[in-house]
Amino acid sequence: MSWLNSVLSTPLIGLRIVPDLKLAGSFDSVFAEIFTNKVQSNPRLDISTSSKWDIELKSLNGLRHHVNLENIICEYKYNVEMAKVPGSLPVPKTIDLKPFSELMDECHTEIHQFTKAIIDAGFEVKISRIGIMARANLDPSDMPPGIVKLFEHLSAPWENGLVKSQTVLLANLAEDETQLDRCHHHINMDKVEESPQMDFTLDWQRVFSDPKQFTRIDDFEAVFSKSITDSMDYFEKVGEGIL
What does 102-118 look like in DSSP terms, one character per residue? Predict the structure, then answer.
């Protein structure tokens, strides 16, 4: 079982696509069925637009989408709703936490659906980067061994260690003539406050030397699924400390 399933963690998956002017002219019709189905199944769906070609969807179940001519993004963020208490201040409602792997599968399905809509409409999808992110809120006193090891390494120059840190580490993981795999490691730790916490984010990216072109959804899914598998393998290595 992934260490991400045992902590408060959420995913984000994003495709960086090469803008297509032909798609711009059909943007509404390409995604019309998806948007209609989501509105019908979720009457409280929040829809915002900054332009005709830039749409954001936020649902109460936590799924969020951001689609424009350059990006297809799906992420999960827990929505905290407040419950009224007679004679007192409102209190947060209880949230049912889901395993990270389940949320990742949901985001995977959503990205597949939007990409399929573009291909089914007769357009080519050109992808320059696939990004997969894991965001975790950790208890500094009970972290996975690999993250403990990483933080001990960062703390090594000081006899008493670190009590607060905002750090970004970018590592190139693998590279050949067709693609580069890299990962940003965001560490935001604070032991000064009354309730110590650490926000730990892994932002894994597969950057293609030349944009990958897809006219068949099966071809896209093969590349997409491989990226998700490789990113999850790396996330596990980070948690175990076997980089």
Answer: HHHHHHHHHHHHHHHHH
